[in-house]
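Example record

One chain of 355 residues, shown exactly as stored in the release files.
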Amino acid sequence: MTDEGVEVLLLSAGADLPWLCGYDAMGLERLTLLVLPREGDATLLVPRLEAARVVERPGVFNLMTWQDGEDPVGIATDLVGSVAKAAIGDQTWAGFLMDFTKVLPRTSFVRASQVTAPLRMVKDATEVSALRQAAWAIDRVISEVQTGIIPLAGRSESEVAADLARRIIEEGHQRVNFVIVASGPNAASPHHDAGKRIIQDGEGILFDIGGTMSDNEGVGYCSDITRCVHLGEPPQGFVEIYGVLHEAQEAGVAAARVGTPCEEVDAACRKIIGEAGYGEFFVHRTGHGIGVEAHEHPNIVVGNDLPLAVGHVFSVEPGIYIPGSWGVRLEDIVTTGEAGPDSLNCADRQLAILS
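Predicted structure tokens for this chain:
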């Protein structure tokens, strides 16, 4: 905060709040706000009806409540006082920001992520352990797809997605973040919504699943994995693009060493896919950071010259998408360690061919 000239952090709903104080606020129209001054004590201001959900942490923050009919922005303003520069949570409702600009006209506002993102993207050993446990849990779910335990043919994408969501919870996650089940030509849409399409023999299916699993302190850490299967023997073209993808993903993981700029990991994947003639069909960044949010810093993307450091945790997930035909993606969560890159996911990376 001193480096950024920020005098107070104002954190509402969003991942910064539970990361700092252990409380995951609902995204309500009622204001929840952690007021964290550069000097002095932090105060967590919550609606009175939400107070029962807060685990009080004396020495971390003081708890203050407000009730319907009171002015929470006014209460928060009294806590903030007169400051020249405040950092407000990136996911704070725009309406609250507009209210604060009216009552604090001499205060300039910046994104809280200027302060919190550099801190959150370097995980300590406890956080890496929590992410590894979440990764192993999601591995067990995806392995049930790869080994044929979960039936696919003749079921709709949405039916399979619901089955996977149930299993994600059964494996210890508190929340399902997303379940992508994209069959046949639908897999050419990277963020396809599982729908009514019936999965057929003789086609490929892309699965991208993840959730949030709480650690011992009640803070949730995320999982994320992508694998592909094919029902029956795949055509040669499918085998070819998956082979290119597999090689590219391995190259990206191998490049993810301490000191390597993020964009060079992206380039390692992109080079192999481009040289194979599929460069135009790789339409997204190679990866994103992961932690208390499914997507956070650092991003593995061209233009990001940030050197990887011990404790960075991120996805390596190149993809190839042929419109109207098929799509493939392969994703692991990786952390950079002193000894080299460490893939937290262990599920089989080969194309699973199910009879």
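Notes: The radius of gyration is 22 Å.
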